[in-house]
Design a protein that fits this description.
Radius of gyration: 17 Å
Bound molecules: pyridoxal-5'-phosphate
Strand content: 15-25%
Number of helices: 10
Order of helices and strands: HEHEHEHEHEHHEHEHEH
Strand order of the largest sheet: 7-6-5-4-3-2-1-8
Distance between the termini: 20 Å
Largest sheet: 8 strands, parallel
Length: 222
């Protein structure tokens, strides 16, 4: 496993304007430093405790992406430093992030998670719910948070056609929101694509991919 080589080979496959988030969850700091020394600055984690520990230990110019399911009572731990929260799946969570943003004198960048997959277990908002949030008067008051786009995860399947349909559907919803020129939300980021499907996601219009195992190797959960 050579992390620098893996990163170089992925970068060769993706256009410059696509942001690569290296998903380092479960991996030890030494491996994160290998990515860092190869020039990688955007790293993604999905557990609050693991993220804060890594933030404390590692260089301060790392841009930390939170890509997991975030509980409202844990927002405070990452609010001071998180670069982008990908998985906002309720208005309540957005309001909590706003409050913590205000406490930290910042406006925290967020993506709304869209439920595109079929699985019942996947978190996320429907298109209708997202429109309601983006059109609500209340969002204008939430100056501690900044909605910058959408995040989605395709169904976990071997069926490439199915995945492609879901990506196309998400991209078209993204384009629709973007064209509305919402004065409060600045819709510009579409986070979709992981190790197994990032090339397809980029073909379908993704501009941010979250890649873990193809960079750091398979994860072993204990
Ligand atoms: C773990 C994870 C990834 C990366 O998955 P790989 O298949 O290892 O690339 C991407 N997005 C989210 C939300 C994840 O939890």
């Amino acid at each position: 496993m050579n992390i620098a080589e893996n990163l170089a080979s992925i970068k060769n496959h993706i256009p410059n304007e696509v942001c690569l988030v290296a998903v380092s969850k479960t991996k030890p700091n030494e491996l994160l430093m290998e990515a860092y020394n190869a020039g990688q600055r955007d790293l993604g984690e999905n557990k609050v405790q693991e993220l804060t520990a890594k933030f404390e230990a590692l260089p301060k110019d790392i841009k930390w992406h939170f890509i997991g399911h975030l509980q409202t009572n844990k927002v405070k731990y990452i609010a001071p430093f998180v670069h982008l929260i990908h998985g906002v799946d309720s208005f309540k969570l957005l309001k909590t992030i706003h409050k913590e943003g205000i406490k930290n004198n910042r406006s925290i960048p967020c993506l709304l998670q869209v439920k595109i997959a079929e699985e019942e277990s996947k978190f996320g908002l429907s298109g209708k719910e997202i429109n309601e949030i983006l059109n609500s008067e209340e969002l204008k008051e939430l100056t501690g948070v900044k909605v910058l786009g959408l995040m989605g995860m395709a169904t976990n399947t071997e069926n490439e056609q199915k995945i492609k349909e879901e990506f196309i559907q998400l991209k078209s919803f993204f384009d629709e929101l973007k064209s509305k020129d919402n004065p409060i939300a600045d819709i510009q980021i579409l986070s979709m694509g992981m190790s197994g499907d990032y090339e397809l996601a980029i073909e379908c219009g993704s501009n941010m991919v979250r890649i873990g195992s193809s960079i750091f190797g398979e994860r072993h959960y204990v």
